[in-house]
């Protein structure tokens, strides 16, 4: 018997939405129609986004497609490449098109985890003259974050970034703070510079 996971022939998509009776709630077709409408809306939005990005970024179609797929699927991306390929412009353009907040973090050897997550700051209340700690958000508190040259930073700072990417929240001291949604990180590294 053949292994069902062994695919040797390409599979062609017909472009049709096929739904079983279980998928459509008893065969009434309402869920399939709603699915088709959602797919059409996403496809139209995707086309408009590519067109707008094309006004700022010439070429790079494969990278743009992969970034958008990652963004739509709730994932994150790592781009390897030499400086000067318009990575910052690409990510800031996507954030502008989607009207999302954007931050760029330049990772350096002396960058500490609190530099990206934020920290508790002691502040005086002018009305009550009381002192209290208030959390000051770091640059990770944005919808789209460009983590530039992550290979240059210490492992502890990389771990803070990875926690934010995986958990979609950051931990500072004993407190945990949720990150804004959607949350998308595009990390870059220069393959020529592998020192940290």
Description of the molecule:
- This protein is of the alpha/beta class.
- The chain folds into two domains: 23-56; 59-189, 3-Layer(aba) Sandwich (Rossmann fold).
- 35% of the residues lie in helices and 21% in strands.
- It contains five helices and eight strands; from the N terminus they run ααβαβαβββαβββ.
- It has a four-stranded parallel beta sheet with strand order 1-8-5-2. Strands 3-4 form a two-stranded antiparallel ribbon. It has a two-stranded antiparallel sheet with strand order 6-7.
- β3 (118-124) and β4 form a beta hairpin.
- α1 crosses α3.
- The longest helix is centred in the first third of the chain and has 27 residues, at 30-56.
- The chain is globular, with a radius of gyration of 22 Å.
- Residues 1-25 have low confidence and may be disordered.
Largest sheet: 4 strands, parallel
Kindly, what is the distance between the CA atoms of the first and last residues, rounded to a whole number of angstroms? 51 Å
Q: Uncertain regions: pLDDT < 50 for 5+ in a row?
A: 1-25
| Count of DSSP strands | 8
